[in-house]
Design goal:
The structure is a homodimer.
Chain A: H1 28-42, E1 50-51, H2 53-60, H3 64-72, E2 78-79, E3 83-85, H4 86-97, E4 103-108, H5 112-119, H6 121-125, E5 128-135, E6 142-143, E7 149-152, H7 156-162, E8 167-170, H8 174-187, E9 191-194, E10 207-210, H9 213-232
Parallel strand pairs in A: 4-5, 4-8, 5-7, 8-9, 9-10
Antiparallel strand pairs in A: 1-3, 2-3, 6-7
The first copy, chain A, binds a DNA duplex through helix 1, helix 3 and strand 2.
Chain lengths: 233, 233
DNA sequence: TAGATTGTTAATCGATTAACAATC
DNA sequence: TAGATTGTTAATCGATTAACAATC
């Protein structure tokens, strides 16, 4: 086993004995594709044991060289002439993404979006357990959707501590987002999924990902418009 | 005026006389930042007339050289030594993104997410008018959220035609997404915002953007895990 | 062995950013 | 003019992809 100074971090810390280590940084673009591959593998033919990069690329809608390069960052899970062992590869991707445990999650903002997200099955399916919703409006406090309680904002720090919450989903108005994000960071949250249409300014210790619904639509209209112009021009 | 062969497309087609043309392709990464800039400009100090690339960069959370490069693709809207005229720049970004008109939009899937999206103010604020929701479940057909009707899937083609719908928001289960996307394409929809956790395989004539909620959370867990490992390692 | 497919190299492509001349 | 800031160039960085040797 190499000394700790030889590796940046080591996939074997949580992994099984059969599996090679993950060495060095995995590029962000690769990370963002791993969940897609995971889903494609889960959807692969039930009987199959192996899956080629070509097949995976076809389902995921990417280039097969990209699949091979992406997977090479995880270590060697392919068999030349055969393909990738589906079960092994799935396990390794889950391990690299940290999906071999459950993540207590809170949703801040119990408006339309927050409540819909609380009911969204996809989160639970992927191992994200929503332990509570929070809202500034005292009238909303009480039993919430899908059996998840809606709590007062004052409870935030206590719940984060008691339930060991690592992830917060931010579904508050843009005007409130920055303030709430700062409170979450202060309470010890290290990961925020931000649905508020605003750029959060927060320390490096907190990872923020933004899901910006209007922005996505506006990018679509750019293409609609340019297609229109090229047709009429 | 240059001949049509000299430009790929021309921002003046819908633009005012004062404004320079947009020539050539705007890089996708730039397009995806334009909505952010637009929001930052709208949020800029109400009294101000000009805004520097440095200020804009600060609010948008990007490098100021990037702001200048991005904006340079739109033509020359800055004044050296002064900054960008906020109102002019806003107008030009809206024009480039095609936001100088309204877009009739449909939401397919009247589940939790579809209904929450129908109620989401951000869409209407940005000029996206949701004309109808659609659902396979006949029991859901009838008056829907925010005064928007829930219609049977059979009505899809008629509504798309009659209301000149260009954008569809896909909020159906993954298993149904591909089939619905093909119907939408067939009906003449050119832009799809896909919330179903699946990669759509569809012709080049249809622009698809994916919003993948579980994937976003899984990217967060990757960083949580690697932070955990580097702390304990 | 012959056929298939990986893992990796090297080329290409595109995006970011520092630096600075142009110019308000 | 002096100070400020743009617009653009060139350097750097990172991501994609074709090609192919390694090898099952």
């Amino acid at each position: 086993m190499p000394g700790p100074s030889a590796v940046l971090w080591d996939g074997d810390v949580l992994g099984g004995p059969r599996l090679a280590s993950v060495r060095g940084r995995i590029p962000p673009t690769t990370i963002s594709r791993l969940p897609i591959y995971l889903r494609c593998l889960a959807a692969a033919s039930p009987g199959a044991t192996f899956c080629s990069s070509e097949q995976l690329a076809e389902i995921a809608g990417v280039n097969s060289a990209q699949v091979r390069k992406d997977l090479s960052y995880l270590g060697s899970y392919g068999v030349r002439g055969v393909g990738y062992n589906i079960a092994e590869l799935e396990a390794q991707i889950r391990r690299v993404l940290g999906l071999d445990r459950e993540y207590p999650t809170v949703i801040v903002g119990a408006g339309n979006l927050g409540r819909a997200l609380a009911r969204y099955d996809g989160f639970a399916d992927a191992g994200f357990r929503v332990v509570a919703l929070f809202d500034v409006d005292p009238a909303k406090v009480g039993p919430g959707p899908a059996g998840i309680p809606i709590l007062a904002m004052g409870e935030l720090e206590r719940v984060v501590r008691d339930e060991d919450v690592a992830i917060a989903i931010l579904a508050v108005p843009a005007s409130a987002a920055q303030g709430v994000a700062e409170r979450l960071a202060e309470a010890g949250i290290r990961s925020i999924l931000n649905f508020a249409p605003t750029v959060l300014r927060i320390g490096d210790g907190v990872e923020v990902r933004r899901v910006d619904l209007s922005t996505e639509l506006q990018i679509l209209t750019y293409h609609l418009r340019s297609r229109l112009l090229s047709e009429s021009g």
